[in-house]
Amino acid sequence: MAIDHLDGRIIVLLAEEPRIGVLEMSRRLGVARGTVQARLDRLQSNGVIRGFGPQVDPAALGYPVTAFATLQIRQGQGADVRAYLTTVPEVLELLTTTGSGDMLCRLVARSNADLQRVIDRVVGFDGIVRASTAIVMENPVPLRIIPLVEQAAGAEPP
Amino acid sequence: MAIDHLDGRIIVLLAEEPRIGVLEMSRRLGVARGTVQARLDRLQSNGVIRGFGPQVDPAALGYPVTAFATLQIRQGQGADVRAYLTTVPEVLELLTTTGSGDMLCRLVARSNADLQRVIDRVVGFDGIVRASTAIVMENPVPLRIIPLVEQAAGAEPP
DNA sequence: CGTACCACTGGGCAAGTTGCCCAGCGATGA
DNA sequence: TCATCGCTGGGCAACTTGCCCAGTGGTACG
């Protein structure tokens, strides 16, 4: 659960050069190969590293428009709404948040015009009372984890 | 830019079993190794596949609380705010959206109490006028891309 | 109608990596 | 004092990678 400095360096190295192998990592970190292997196994079984899935860019796939929709759900319809939204490919993420029984929904679309279609499809579902949408214009800080890893790795040792 | 069926299957396969190699993929897909290699290279240089960085779970790192903060920025301070928030490790993502000159900010914290510290640190910056925060309770649809990939891969061929 | 060009196949090669094993060592804790 | 744990450093066979090649079918263009 707690991460030490070596774990941190492994994760950072892996993030910078994902194609790197265990052997090369051990060389760069100055430790034995078995050590890196053991650490990696531990990090994965701990759930710290969930996997190494490919990071796909929706924009390159033809979906350059991202938006966030805040949904207001009819009482008791939460489960139905989740199940429905799971079936919509353009829904990339769905979160329930504090506030008036709300959900936050990350959407993509082929264009601003297409976004209308996606939103209609989302809010067309019966259990959704109201939706307000914000279109993403810029992404100054793309989803990242490294700074947090470094903090988690560096803060503990002392 | 456009993805065909084989590209889609490669991405899906890669997402399901990231440790798989090119040779094993070619066997499962029933194509020559060189073909898979060429497709992968193309997908990466196209930017469709950005990389294979490790997916780290903030919760396993000791940051189980996620929240979204909507920030209202003082006129003309946008760039300063971005630069500042980039330095805060708990800020995992920052987006500018339509609406009253707003930014949306994804945060994590060690606990609800710790979230207060993080928020103070975020909104303590001068260029931020107001912030409203929503704590994430559940994550019914974790960030995903496969359904979209399948749609992009399956819709074109006909 | 012929000719390039392109993507794919199927094969072959050396070099490197992986997964697995082992013995030894130093620090930690009972 | 002894057992445990994590790390080291080494060795091994099996596999994969990166790279090369010639041949083939389809498509676009002259």
Describe this entry's structure for a reader.
- Chains A, B: Keywords: DNA-binding, Transcription, Transcription regulation.
- Chains A, B: InterPro entries: AsnC-type_HTH_dom, Dimeric_a/b-barrel, Tscrpt_reg_AsnC-like, Tscrpt_reg_AsnC/Lrp_C, WH-like_DNA-bd_sf, WH_DNA-bd_sf.
- Chains A, B: This is AsnC family transcriptional regulator.
- The structure is a homodimer of 158-residue chains.
- With 158 residues, chain A is α+β, with helices and mostly antiparallel strands.
- The first copy, chain A, contains six helices and six strands; from the N terminus they run αααβββαββαβα.
- Chain A has a four-stranded antiparallel sheet.
- In chain A, strand 4 and strand 5 (102-109) form a beta hairpin.
- The longest helix of chain A has 14 residues, at 33-46.
- The mean pLDDT of chain A is 93.
- Chains A and B meet through helix 1, strand 1, strand 2, helix 4 and strand 4 of A and helix 1, strand 1, strand 2, helix 4 and strand 4 of B.
- Strand 1 of chain A pairs antiparallel with strand 2 (55-56) of chain B.
- Chain A binds a DNA duplex (30 and 30 nucleotides) through residues 21-24, 31-35, 37-38.
